UniProtKB/TrEMBL annotation:
It comes from the Bacteria. Keywords: Endonuclease, Hydrolase, Nuclease. The keyword Repeat does not apply. InterPro entries: HNH_5, HNH_nuc, NA-targeting_endonuclease. The keyword Hydrolase applies. This is HNH endonuclease. It comes from Nesterenkonia salmonea.
Length: 167
């Protein structure tokens, strides 16, 4: 079971195991805002299983630029959908091939399905007559949120801002 951790300002900070969340609550570092499922059983106590906790002290999070793109980051940004055909994607492709001077930047990398990746090869979109379904960009601010918030649990929804989660 996973637990949503909210910073003292009620913004989502992380998602941790319910055991880690229970330890934070027992040490007085957080409060339980919502409970979920069966309790955590210890030799001496039954502890309610936290679904959402709120930290008592604000944790300052330093967020710099997203840095170099990674396969995981590109797939997450594009929601695992092929930028050429819209099917499920498992690979990453250079829009402008490296052999033709393309770089490995956020703006030139795209999630891609296997068949499209093979068909495209080192050709340009003009040569193939293809158009992009999405425009590759540097990830938006919500990409800093934990990946678990891409598909949040129902019990977390009252504590999340839907506009921050939509891309």
């Amino acid at each position: 079971m996973r637990t949503l951790v909210l910073n003292a300002g009620y913004e989502p900070l992380n998602v941790v195991t319910s055991r880690r969340a229970a330890v934070l609550v027992m040490r007085g570092k957080a409060s339980v805002l919502a409970e979920d499922g069966s309790p955590i059983v210890s030799p001496s106590a039954l502890i309610p299983r936290p679904a959402v906790i709120l930290l008592h002290q604000y944790v300052r999070v330093v967020r710099t630029s997203p840095g170099a793109p990674s396969r995981r980051g590109i797939l997450r940004r594009d929601r695992r959908q092929c930028g050429y055909c819209g099917r499920s994607a498992a690979t990453v492709d250079h829009v402008i091939p490296k052999s033709r001077g393309g770089d490995s930047s956020w703006e030139n990398l795209l999630a891609c399905c296997g068949p499209c990746n093979v068909r495209k090869g080192d050709k340009t979109l003009d040569q193939l007559g293809w158009k992009l379904l999405i425009t590759p960009r540097v990830p938006p601010h919500h990409m800093w949120l934990p990946a678990e918030l891409d598909a949040p649990r129902d019990v977390w929804m009252p504590f999340l801002d839907p506009s921050a989660l939509s891309a």
